[in-house]
Amino acid sequence: MSLITDNYTYKTLDSEINKTIAFCPVSLSEDLDKIHKWMNQDYVISFWKLGFDKDKIQQHLEKALADKHQTLYIGFIDDVPMSYWESYWTIDDVISGCYPAKKYDQGIHLLIGDRNFLGKGYALPLLRAMTFFKFKNSPTQKVIAEPDIRNKKMIYIFEKCGFVFQKEILLPDKSAALMFCKRQHFMEKWK
């Protein structure tokens, strides 16, 4: 069951883990410190390449927040902020040069920033919740992901969620696995 609340843009109870998952847009004043800390975790730096000082992270976030083709979110489990998300319209993104992007295709990036939530089986429920959230936009028929080709754990999680590997692509900052999750397949998989 999904709910819209005053505090969160999207909130759902995941019966598999018996926890509430929610997403709220990033607020620079409230979230800068935690995002800075998360981007500087050793397991994050090699994939995100944003292990900067706080001023440089602030500049990066200000630019990203001003970019109208994307929305940044903090992900919560049982009201504890623990993940960072970027959701974007692929038609206006560099990824559109890698496949025939459609107007309502959406893409996502994610990281679990709070180390206390690693290795506990939360990645799949979080990704599933975000994918459901993206499909709440009824014209969206496809959600795409492009994890770093070296990030075998995340590629596996995307596949378990319903994303299908398409091809390896070269982006300005990485070699990536282009993956598609189509609405009908996803909805059938997670009825």
How would you explain this protein's 3D organization?
- This protein is an alpha+beta fold.
- It has one domain: Gcn5-related N-acetyltransferase (GNAT) (Aminopeptidase), CATH 3.40.630.30.
- It contains 6 helices and 9 strands.
- The protein has helices at residues 28-39, 42-48, 54-66, 123-135, 152-161, 183-189, and strands spanning 2-3, 10-14, 19-25, 70-77, 80-89, 106-112, 142-145, 164-171, 174-182.
- The protein has a 9-stranded mixed β-sheet with strand order 1-2-3-4-5-6-7-9-8, with helices on both faces.
- Helix 1 crosses helix 3 (54-66) and helix 4 (123-135) crosses helix 5 (152-161).
- It is globular, with a radius of gyration of 16 Å.
Tally of helical runs: 6
N- to C-terminal distance: 11 Å
Under the CATH scheme, which architecture would be assigned?
A: 3-Layer(aba) Sandwich
Shape estimate: globular
Which percent bin holds the helix content? 25-40%
CATH class: Alpha Beta
Question: DSSP strand (E) fraction?
Answer: 25-35%
Features of this protein?
disordered N terminus, 6 helices, Aminopeptidase, 191 residues, alpha+beta
Topology:
Elements: E1 2-3, E2 10-14, E3 19-25, H1 28-39, H2 42-48, H3 54-66, E4 70-77, E5 80-89, E6 106-112, H4 123-135, E7 142-145, H5 152-161, E8 164-171, E9 174-182, H6 183-189
Parallel strand pairs: 6-7
Antiparallel strand pairs: 1-2, 2-3, 3-4, 4-5, 5-6, 7-9, 8-9
Helix pairs in contact: 1-3, 4-5
Short account of what is shown:
The protein has 191 residues and is an alpha+beta fold. It is built from 6 helices and 9 strands. It has a 9-stranded mixed β-sheet, with helices on both faces.
